[in-house]
Amino acid sequence: xxxxxxxxxxxxxxxxxxxxxxxxxxxxxxxxxxxxxxxxxxxxxxxxxxxxxxxxxxxxxxxxxxxxxxxxxxxxxxxxxxxxxxxxxxxxxxxxxxxxxxxxxxxxxxxxxxxxxxxxxxxxxxxxxxxxxxxxxxxxxxxxxxxxxxxxxxxxxxxxxxxxxxxxxxxxxxxxxxxxxxxxxxxxxxxxxxxxxxxxxxxxxxxxxxxxxxxxxxx
Length: 219
Description:
Helices cover 27% and strands 23% of the residues.
């Protein structure tokens, strides 16, 4: 399908449904990658899903893109630009609304799939706007509470379900950061699964089949 001229560059795999508005899965890649990365999963995922893989807005040199800057400072060490991250969070929400309108998608059946920095943004979107998101597949990331808008304790998360996973040997995002996810989600009353796999900063085959099976049960 030819992509519409929307606010963010993206790739799209249409749903096979012939009637009604199809459910949609939005994909958000990691730091330094692009919209083609996670899109390789698309042929293996449920056919009824429309799949849209989105390019992050900040260009990196010599190639790749990012949702926000990661800076390295002699005094502060490694730190993330939360202001840029919040901007990307809200740009994603705007794009989701645009895409659902442009492609005739079911705005009540929106799922997100992120990897690394894309996962951090997926959490931020879902926990800030839980009324918009039905499912999140959160791979190799963590929850940055600084980029979540409003008070999560006052929000209704009854429709939101999350699959989270992490590599036990991840040297980019420490497993200890991801291991805080279950307690945070439990505290918010969010139905979730958290799994770890004996890999580094990546998606093992058993990890892929695990989240694929989890997603198939949602439709």
